[in-house]
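Appendix C reproduces, verbatim, an entry submitted by the partner laboratory led by Prof. M.T., so that reviewers can inspect both the input and the predicted structure.
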Amino acid sequence: MDGVGFHDLEFRRNHEPGIIKMTPFDLHQAQTRRQMIGLGARGLGALGAASLLNPTLLKAATSQAGISSFGTLEAPHFKPSAKRVIYLFLSGGPSHIDLYDYHPKMKDFHGIELPDSIRNGQRITGMTSGQKSFPCVAPMFEFSRHGPSGSWFSDAIPNIASIADEITLVKSVHTEAINHDPAITAINTGSQQPGKPSMGAWLDWGIGSPNKDLPGYVVMISKGKGNAQALYDRLWGSGFLPSKHQGVKFRSTGDPVLYLSNPNGISRDMRRNMLDGIAKINQAKKRETGDLEIDARIAQYEMAYRMQTSVPELVDLKDEPKHVLDLYGEDATQKGTFAHNCLIARRLSERGVPFIQLFHRGWDQHNNLPKELRGQTKDIDHPAAGLVKDLKQRGLLKDTVVICGGEFGRTIYSQGKLTKDNHGRDHHGRCFSMWMAGGGFKAGFEYGKTDDFAYNIVDNPVHVNDLNATILHTLGIDHERFTFNYLGLDQRLTGVEHPKVIPELLA
């Protein structure tokens, strides 16, 4: 079923019994401790266990603490066009030159030295800084125009090209970061410096989730055949926000979430007796200290209890008909694949989960790009397009934002030796391409322009924080007013360097 929207939450705050309104500061005090049990590897073991204790007791404790699935914003800043976000993050830096940002003149530039006037003193990575030559490389893929915008799409992504009428293709995204970790951190948190909350954590804190049985922020990871950069849990972390807002990572083996199942040899009655004791200890500790975080912990126990039934049902695909599975491609039923994760993302969106993020690793093609890029696009092309089509036919695309892209693009010049059929490309943050579908973004629209080398932006630049501000806007959030006071500064997802919403991207 489709969950209630952000605009429905205020009514429920004021009319549902047992829900106490709290200020963001009060909620922070009630829920925050760095050592508090989170929804991680150790946390869910305790969470799932404790929740078997007594649902009535847990519900009462949750109500007393004023803790619910609602966020801290009293109401949207303005009418939202979207209720949820599915973020398809291609980790490693997919080549915009070989997928989206084609210029016919590139064929004429193939093999010639990148002009100094184009590079213009750009800082480059240590991997190519020692090269004496920077020969330009035209795409080794065929391109054709699609959709009302006439956008170019590579033949490596024919299925994504088939949804050109549904997407906004932005060719002028840019970032200051030139290496993976700071770039991934920047686009996910608004800052290159670690320690800031991720976008999903911000949204879980701000607007919460209408589904009490599932986390408000879910992360799934898949890996292609290319060079897979490391991903750190802090990329979906809560930073200085209460720890309950960090993303919950679904696994591809064993329990989808750690410790959902009871341990071998432990019966339901044995666990109940154990947790009765834990509850008495917790209540005694609360009487002694007055620590409201104990109530917050009990509320998380309740979530874990509910996940013990909601998550297995979520990942059971037996009710999915063949024609739906076919939308996602041959790997749809294979756990751990991008295709399978896309299908689970649709099922999560049906159940009202507000932020779902898929990380697909392997896009760092410093060498052997033609072959590796083919492999990577085979992983994502069919399921990404299928997800958009599936959401649309279910009536969910209109209020779901689908985002697809990585942390930066790749250079027009070759890294290493350029041969007839092989080459690599270095990192390039000065311009790259991303696309969005649904949730209030324009359909069949292209925005931004680069030079003939796809090296510099010549029209309508979009900083990564401009993009994040625009995404928040679709959810009814004014990014400048969406703040959390930490270390004396009103922190926000979009940073402090005057990012802006890009209205031209919105329908």
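The two ends are 26 Å apart (CA to CA). Additional entries are available on request from the coordinating office.
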